[in-house]
Amino acid sequence: MTETPKRRARAGHGDDSIYWDKSKNRYIGAVSLGYTPAGQRNRSKVSGKTKAEVRQKLRELRRELADGAKTPAHYTVAQAVTDWLAQGLKGREVTSVDTYKSLAENHVIPQLGKAKVRELEADDLDEWLEARAEVLATQSLRMVHSVLRRSISHAQRRGKAVRNMADLVEVPEGRAGRPSKSLSLDQAAAVLRAKDGSWVHAYVVLSLLVGVRPEEVRPLTWSHIHLTRSGNEKPHVDVWRSVRQHGDTKTRKSRRSLAMPQQVVAVMKAHHRRERAACLAAGEEWTDERLVFPTVAGERRSALNVRRNFRTLLKEAGFKDPQAWTPRELRTSFVSVLSDYGIPIEVISRLVGHNGSGTTERVYRKQLRPVIAEGAEAMDHIFGNAAEDGGID
Question: What percent of the chain has pLDDT over 70?
Answer without folding.
Answer: 72
